[in-house]
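Subject: mismatched residue count in predicted assembly?

I count 352 residues in my input, but I want to confirm that the predicted structure covers every chain. Input:
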Amino acid sequence: MNEALSILLNKGTSKSYSKKEFIIRQGETSNKIYFVKHGVTRHYVLTRDGQEKTIRISLEQDFFYSSIVSYFKNEASYIYCQCLTDCDLIYWESSLIEELFKEYPDLETFKNQQLINFILEKHTREIALITQNAEGRYQQFCKTRLDLFNRIPHHIIASYLDITPETLSRLRSKKS
Amino acid sequence: MNEALSILLNKGTSKSYSKKEFIIRQGETSNKIYFVKHGVTRHYVLTRDGQEKTIRISLEQDFFYSSIVSYFKNEASYIYCQCLTDCDLIYWESSLIEELFKEYPDLETFKNQQLINFILEKHTREIALITQNAEGRYQQFCKTRLDLFNRIPHHIIASYLDITPETLSRLRSKKS
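Triage response: the counts match. Full output below for your records.
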């Protein structure tokens, strides 16, 4: 484990969550960053017709803001963040994070790399949604996250891949 | 102008581009960051049926990677980056950027803020595409970028807003 990560983890607060428990709901304001020790979480928004649209799935070793736009703009969140399994998380309040950055300047580089990783993940998904068909997106997902099919409801993976649960089921039976 | 930006701009290379000229094409590898002194550029990808889908529009004072995934993963770009007007840009090669970060540690904080701005822009657009209808997205665009209608082809704005050119035309005539 690198030094920056080790310092961060030691300064954070551990908290356990139950499956389906919310980390943030739409309308609340985000002021925390989280690290996943154990479990799976998702970020989702409500579509215009009230459907839940999953836009991010985080698992062990991932960092996430409960709502990144809310965190940086200090405004109410559009996003929900929810545990998909029982979870053990570590969190830091924004005021503590700012103190840690002043105390340990090396953390700036670490944060920078985390932001870049987040951008690459978002960008790769955005491009996949435009350039790949359902099967291509499903196959790409299976390459890195196949084990999630045993951990979380499949309709949430379907939403994340922007396909219907029926199409996902068809693709899975085709493969096996 | 803050000091970090001033240092950066002085160390970059100026280059003029003509309208429609490409900064990067699909298949090429990105190793440069750009700043827009004057003009408008866009990033786009090709959809599965060969249509151009605009995913980002940059203008004066914006920084952009010619292709951010290509830049950080050192792989061929999926993205095209093209000038929509005659442009005066400043660019930095990745090797120079790394040297500057070593020489001026304060730039790390500046870069960090740029990455956060980029994430907020991408995230806000992603959520708008899910939660707002065509009119909502059009009105949001008009709030900050109304002048672009006088500078770039409207079908490109329509593509960016994920609506048809006909819908955009209807929304514009409705407003006036």
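Chain B touches chain A through 31 residues (CB under 8 Å). Marking this ticket as 'not a bug'.
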